[in-house]
Amino acid sequence: MTAARAHVFDTQNTAAYHCYSHCVRGALLCGSGHNSSRPLEQRQDWIEDRVLDLCESFAVGVFAWAIMDNHHHIVLVVDPQMPQSWSDLDVAHRWCRITQIPGATKDPKQLEREVANLVRNPAGLEVKRQRLGSLSWFMRHLNEGIARRANREDGSRGRFWQGRYGCQKLLDDIAMMVGMAYVDLNPIRAGMVDELTDSQYTTIHRRMKLLGHGTVSEDAPLQAFAGPVTAYGPDLSHRQYIDMVDRMGRQPKAGKAAIHAAAPPALAGASYPPAGCQELYANFQKSFGSAVGSEAALTARARSQGRSWLRGIGLARKIGQQSR
Question: Hey, what CATH topology would domain 5-86+136-323 get?
């Protein structure tokens, strides 16, 4: 049974989440499906552009994404309290700019009229302020915008995504680290590419390009790729994270592909990930439910919800014992 969003999203505190959405149709989301007479790879650009655009408005930090043929994954941090520090005019601008049709640009005069009207409506403005710190509203604007645009292109109507997006709360640094690796390795595990450098529609591909261009130092702390929430995330450098993902991607996983054995290491000389990461990664979605983390973190999460158990506690306990 899927957990209610009220039991997953923290409306008061900054927290990390892994979210994913699957296309409901027989035709693929971003490939040449059996119901499609034309390639649809440009929709991967749509999703990346939309994620980056929404980061300009919402109180989020996006750490990882992967856009596949029929679904997408995203790891992000949401700070529900950040919009409280924004001015009324800032909130109005942020909200009005994301209500435009994806792929189109509002007339500047129309946008300013909408901003002015919203500023003059304190009750409505407060609602929008709350929404700009909401995971659900971020995902809604991401998925609805893509669905409407794809429907227009396909000449179709009706549902584009399966019921609602899936969501797991990442309770600690290790869970977030492994969640990011899980997302960045999706194209590898699906057999779409053989090397990280070829995983075009992922954040790790973009991070490696930034390193290659000298824009980011290998030893710089790993931060959100986009969005205003930056003071959060696993205590890793870019070098350590990319090395961890590369090593994890070379490990066999039942029924899944791996990084080609002949592929050179993404980076040389970095440290191996902390003990237990590989097993947590191997069971990331299969054995955990609405939350992922250590035994202590899952136990505390269960108690906060008035429950004695959460899916994955047994595995977390086993991983913790093996890591000692």
Answer: Alpha-Beta Plaits (3.30.70)
